[in-house]
Amino acid sequence: MKKSSLAACLSLAILSFAAITAADVIDPLDNAAAPPGLFALVTYTGHNSVPDVTDQDGNEYDFGLEASSLVIRPVYFIGQVADKFTYGVNAIIPAVHLSLDSDNAFGAPSSNEFGLGDIGISPFIFLYENQESQFFISFWEFIFVPTGDYDEDNAVNIGRDAYWFQHQLAFGWYPGRFGIDANINYFQFLESDELSYDEPDALELESVVHYAVTEKFRVGLNAAYWIGVEDAKDNGSTIPDSEPMTFKLGLNLSYALNENLSVGFRWMHDVDSENSTMGDSAYIKLGYVF
User: Fold this and answer.
1) Pairwise CA distance, residues 161 & 148, whole Å
2) Residue spans of the chain under pLDDT 50
3) Domains plus CATH for the chain?
4) 67 contacts 98 by C-beta, under 8 angstroms
5) Cα separations (Å) of 186 from 46, 78, 146, 199, 204?
6) For 70-109, what is each residue's pLDDT tens digit?
7) Strands 39-54 and 164-173
8) Residue 199 in contact with residue 17, Cβ under 8 Å?
9) 232 CB contacts (<8 Å, ≥6 apart)?
10) What are the start-end ranges of the E strands in 82-177?
11) β-bridge partners, 123
12) How much is the pTM?
């Protein structure tokens, strides 16, 4: 492993995995508008298995991280601006368990952490909504507060020890049985006071293309591409060729149990990775509309 890659991977090991509970969360019909006054409660029960990390050439090294999470997401559609721009607010409240195997390429000791992760608050507004054509465009601003525990001596942490942001432009189009949901995400990470490593901002493109097999059962294919917009820095010095990159593909299933309750399952696999993690993730989603 090259020195610059080693530094990037070591920093990755030290960084928290708070973004696990926020990134790549897109499911069929997520980006549709709802009537003002509607309140929904969504939960995600998930697990991420991260056996490896990669360097800038895609070479894999043992990491051995297992991450389980329960995320509660309340969503409230408040009203409309000028009788046509629906707006509202939602929140991300994660509980996370991290387990790191001591048999890793960095010689880090085993770690077992559990607690509340970084909480996110997000106002949103629909910039365009056409119920006839079923086409929607919206903007969501996620603000994550450093509520998760952080210890600079731990190899992995539940929190990031800094504020971070997810700026999201979301699209939804549902012509007949077919549909597509897509997001353009820009992640902005502020620097921690405890950590000398400056993680680069990142751009993510994520989408799910889906088909209604029946009125209640929907099948989809997910894809997500994440790339750092610049090199990372360690103690103020740039680490060459350290931009993280991941490309994921997966399967999505959803079923409406009744008018108010739905259940979904999603699995994602890291197909390609550089300066990042390699593994699989899955979650079960429950959504209830009040």
Assistant:
1) 7
2) 1, 3-5, 7, 13-14, 16-18, 20-21
3) 3-289 (2.40.160.40)
4) yes
5) 23, 25, 19, 13, 6
6) 999 999 999 999 988 999 999 999 999 999 887 877 777 7
7) unpaired
8) no
9) 8, 11, 197, 198, 199, 200, 238, 239, 242, 243, 244, 275
10) 85-100, 111-116, 119-130, 135-145, 164-173
11) 89
12) 0.90
State the amino acid at position 80 in one-letter form: Q
Task: Convert the pLDDT of each residue in 48-59 to its tens digit.
Answer: 998 988 888 888
pLDDT at 57: 85
* C-alpha span between 277 and 279 (Å, rounded): 7
Confirm if 52 and 278 have CB atoms less than 8 A apart.
Answer: yes
Give pairs for 79-83: CB < 8 Å, separation 24+: 79/36, 79/37, 80/36, 81/125
* Cβ 230 vs Cβ 223: under 8 Å: no
Degrees, nearest 5: CA angle 172-273-277? 95
Give yes or no for a contact between 56 and 5, defined as CB atoms under 8 angstroms apart.
yes
In this structure, the chain runs to a length of 290
> What's the angle, vertex CA 202, arms to CA 198 and CA 203, rounded to 5?
170
